[in-house]
Protein 1
Amino acid sequence: MNLLRVITPGPLTTVQDSGRKGYQKHGLAQGGAADRHAFLWANKLFDNGPDQACLELAFGGFEAEALCELTIAVTGAAQEILVNGTRHPGWRTVQLKTGDRLKIPGFRYGRISYLAISGGVLSESFLGSRSIVVREQIEGLGAVAAGDVIKGAQATAAPTRTVPEQFRRYYQSPVLCRVIPGYQYKDFSSADLNGLFRQKYRVSQRSDRMGFQLAGAPLTSPPPGITSEGIAMGAIQVPGDGNPIVLLNDRQTIGGYPKVGVVCSQDCNRLIQALPGNEVRFTLTNVETAQAEWQVFERFFQMSRWCASGDRLSWA
């Protein structure tokens, strides 16, 4: 069913779900929602499954017309949306009528929001995922453009729901990235490791869904290049110039730079929202702590249920 006609897509709007898993060996990036926290909350507002596709909006500036009556939800960096010029807060469901004009202004803090509909966005699927990795140029999986029509399941009335305040995120604060050391960790000098974990980095302009390049005092003696190997989500690779790069969803599948370790998944969600100039710091953690936190995070969305009021949840 045709739901929205895109008038202005903004700097970059793509369809994203949980990503294309198991195909890195074929040279395809994982892709998927870069901020899984905001993505899962957008779907949770509709009781969608955790793999239902949403629109991922980078930097705002999105505008569309409703082609039927439907309910939407916008989470992430957009703290408010406009419907026919009237302001509505983000992180909740909003009803649209046929012909309504939806506008999501540019973001003051953060870089990514998610627009969800009941049942998820229906678009071209490839190898089990609707996720778009623009640089791969897969036919039918390009960025959303002006004039595109967003399709979904038949529109149905959706209850009014609001993400409770304690679960929302605001993106003004510095980002603390917890690092699980990798097997090349010991190849870095003590001086460089001390520098990595003590200094404050800044997000550079050369940061996107593929990876975040950080600016600061460069590591002075990074190890030489290694034989190319597979790259994990959150890997911190250090090229010859000594400036660390945190690799994210659209990362290349293999690489030959040494890696200090990986940023835990929860903090990758926070890092992707950082704007150029925002502060980033690293600290050490371990696999057990990161896994336990991630399991609680995922299980919350699986096991919680909305109360009748639509403003809080309880455990099933």
Note: Residues 2-164 form one domain.
Protein 2
Amino acid sequence: MKVLVVGSGAREHAIVTALRRDPQVTHVHAVPGNPGMWAQAKCHELPEGIEDGDAVAKLAVRIGADLVVIGPEAPLVAGVADAVRAAGVACFGPSAQAARLEGSKAFAKDIMAAADVPTALAHVCTGLEQVMDALDAFGPPYVVKDDGLAAGKGVVVTPNRGQALAHAAQCLERETGPGEAPPQVVIEEFLDGPEVSLFCVTDGVSVAPLTPAQDFKRLLDDDQGPNTGGMGAYSPLPWAPAGLTAQVVERIAEPTIRAMRERGTPFAGILYVGLALTSRGLRVVEFNARFGDPETQVVLDRLRTPLGGLLYAAATGTLGDLDELAWHPHTSVTVVLAANGYPDGPRRGDPITGLETVHEPAYVLHAGTRKPSGSELLSHGGRVLSVVASGDDLDQARERVYAAIAGIELRGSQYRHDIALAAAQGRVAAPAAGRD
């Protein structure tokens, strides 16, 4: 099987790495890819960009791809999966209509209501007066979400009403393209309890859950600083209630997939369920329409089932024919090395050295890097690298990942020192109601 992976981040590097472990996958291509993938995949430049569905489809046909896997959210919302399928190539990723589950938080709330999925109470606002009323109705801490795509950084959770209002105003001032609806902002009630990410592979009918993970959104230790795209993750979750995955599939994923199918917009791909285990039970924080970053890095590190066959089955409507997914027993932790100035103004062009000091069971996945011809490896984005390590438990995996990241040099870089620490110390627990 020949697979084309669309994207250039650490998530896509993790997908490429997992595909190379699948004996059925003979060739892996990536567009545009990154320097870390060069040894694993043939990378292609695409002048039109990866949001141009026709260009991606033509590339897939030209290289004879049997399967296209779309990593980032923007190409999905732009309809790249539709174009690939129209060209006769199997594609893992939802249609543009189905990807609205991530592209519009207001649409996602409508689907959750139709499917009777438990989630936070919310008001969808189109003006600041509505925003102020909603903030007053819910009270602090305030949760303000941009309705559209924001690369994981469109959410503000703050006890400061002025800060919440300012973020809402910024969201409502966002420019929209021709034919796009006016910007909206979603104001939600705050959900207590630990958060969990669960990816569900689906062909639009059957659902195959992956292993739960937990990520860390804030930039700094102890969950301080601004929201980011994610600074680290770990899996499995030693504190998670027994039966959590089955409960999420039965109560959330399957009803959502059924509701999408009944609307005439079947969802095939990854349904990323972001959960809070609250004192009142499970609540959906958000849906995404693709693999999450950085959780993918640890989830795929533990996947024993061949990834290519799994994604191809979902893309071709045969997921129900597969055996239950198999997992390695080890624990995985990933830590993100970010550039100086991330997330507001990351510095680019700094040399990266020391990667040769990283050895199994730790390894490096590239995200924001570039390597000009004949030059050294340079930073080229906010989240520059993801370092992954496995161990018998969280303590061992953490020791290995932090030993590996300590050998990497990038001027002014930053990373969190407490990824998975609270869980390793037994300081994370689901509320009693969250165990039901």
Note: The radius of gyration is 21 Å.
Protein 3
Amino acid sequence: MNMDLSRRDFGKLLAGAGATAAFLQLGRSAAIAAPVAGYKAMVGIFLFGGNDGWNMVIPTDTTRYAAYAATRVANLVLPQANLTTLAGSTYGLHPALAPLKAVWDEGGLNVVLNAGTLFQPLTKAQYQASPTLRPVNLMSHSDEQAHWQGIRARDINVDGFMGRLSDRAGASSIPALMSFSGSQLALLGKSSTPLVLPSTGVVTQSAVSGNSADPVLFARNGAVSAFADGAGQGAVTQTTATGLSSAYAQVVQANTILSATSGVDQYFVNPTTGAALTSDIARQLIRVARMIEARSTLGHSRQTFFASQGGYDTHANQIATQNNLFTDLANAMLGFNKAMKALGLNENVICFTLSDFGRVYKGNAQGGSDHAWGNNHLVMGGALKPKQVIGTYPSQVMGGVDDIANDGRFIPTISQEEYIGSIARWHGVADADLPYVFPNWATFSTGGRGPLALFQS
């Protein structure tokens, strides 16, 4: 379930056949910032629907695994012997995430525990006493997707953290902010524009002269192409036409990269069978890898990508559903990790998961789990401090100090600012710009809080 954008926001994201919104950004100046030496990329993978992180990351020590097995409904419990053990920790991953064990073992995978949307650090007593301290409309798909992408827990989100991050980056002829998951709030900036590309095929331009035998369509396309020329038609038309022509040029450049043969594709194979990966998340990450491979051609020293996988709203039949989704996700992430290593860029690229919210710890009678709050996440990349599990696993007592209900709706103990902010800072966002990218930065960067210590330096 993807969040809906308003017509106005949709227009900001799409141009032509969905490549860019450059021609709609009239009167906006490019962001001005000195480029940072070296190359870095961040890849956000949004797990739409609300991933059950409590079956993605499970404690393996005797006491807490016993509490997990006793507290969750029986048809949600994963046998301890089947878990993917994370060596050196007291946690294991869902069995379908087994391909990521190799990444953990080499020091390229971290786990973040109980992260979520927060307006301020919150105790259960504060939650109960002061509704104004809570994020608005908690456990609503659309609202929590907006909270995660816009990073405002109590205000209307009109732009997103990736777009604002891009505002502070240097401009280039083709945007360094790209999505292979359609139009998303995270991509909206105040001055920058994203490139929205398909996960299969290439971008088609419907408004090109001479591309149709239909005389009406031919005439329309010719008119649009003439408009894109803009010569001698006044300042406003000229400005719009320049943006439209730029959008078409970006399409041509992007299509060249998407349609060419690339060496990165060979790494996206099933680790057991060797068969090429065909899932949508694999196709997205293949294209992300291609754009990273082409970074010099594109003139990018920094790149930001949005990818996603849907289907995580598991109110029933969760075991089978998560097994299928995690199999595709793990294989795609492993392939991406191998591709980055082959390019010599494993230490330059970070992948991280996001999701609407976590799900109730206890579960329900239908073999699923309902909407909740805090959640667990994965971070992958060669620049990480090796083999970290960051954060505090919540109390497994239903109705206890961490549970706002009586079924395991846990209050997050790590905010989005602390989680994503650490990645943004690594990516090159200056400390002075962090309050712009994360509007509530001051709340989570003082009083002993701050970005998570994910990275080696």
Note: Residues 14-37, 238-244 have pLDDT under 50 and may be disordered.
Protein 4
Amino acid sequence: MSTNNQRIVSSRPMVSPALLRDEAPLTDAAEAVVVQSRTAVTKVLDGVDDRLLVVVGPCSVHDPVAGLDYARRLAALSDELSGDLCVVMRVYFEKPRTTLGWKGLINDPRLDGSYDVNHGLRIARRLLLDILALGLPVGCEFLDPITPQYIADTVSWGSIGARTAQSQVHRQLCSGLSMPIGIKNSTEGDVQAAVDAVKAAASSHVFPGITDDGLAAIFSTAGNPDCHVILRGSSLGPNYDRGSVEHTVGRLAKAGLPERVIVDGSHGNSGKDHLRQPVVAADIAERIAGGETEVVGIMLESFLEAGRQELVLGHAEDLAYGQSVTDACMGWDVTESVLRSLASAVGQRRASRSVKATASASSIATA
């Protein structure tokens, strides 16, 4: 009697990262979007660029057609507001579950429990390429440590969720990824866990993974200096207020890390109420207009239609178009209004700085 794999029901071959990239290659134009936007995001994080980073999009993509429809609208708005906002579309394909539930488009692309992962990887990569063709950068959450090999070359900004911020596997993964990574505080509100993760990810690590050809290998990383904390609130309440931000900045400074914070307007900060996301954004906008610089970015959950709907596996045809099947999202009209308000706030902060700089120069000249 074998002592191995006693609880494994079946296994199937998995497409290799190299084969998938050969089927759906990154074009030169798309590569330029990724490279330029990664640089832009890093400059915003470092304060070299005074724009606000905005990561906005569906809680999770379940319909590639609706996802691309949303991307077209966001790309046009992003171009219009590009002087004040650095916009990255949230394109999440993997959903961490507290207990059970739909695990995302890569795991179950047919939304019926068939778990055709190879098909899901192909759909996900092609959607990312379609969005990049619009000139719009994309951001993804990395949940499974193998998945990044299939799509990371298309991603300009990544995130590690609240449930995996304390995972050594994910901290090691961050240390080798090629883009800035935001790491959330824990679901219980522990900000130090995110600070520790940022510090760990900035260091080099050695760990097992898979190569482009799908073979097991040992990877050595250089460390990722562009990781940062995301304040997402918790079951205890929100943490986007100025006091919480200053407390987080203090912890980062104590750890010898760059003092940069992104606020997640959803999850614990909105009490999972999509109607409160604009309230969070308005508070951040007011503070930015008043000169606050510690918050370098904001995350928002948004889709074509407001709210959410229940997904019954095997009945995808019954779903309303453009509405989330996971967390409730803001609708497009509200999203557009929120982004315009944030852009206006950045413009006000910049104008105020310009006035102060002119006054200071005049004072020095007079003296």
Note: The chain has a mean pLDDT of 95.
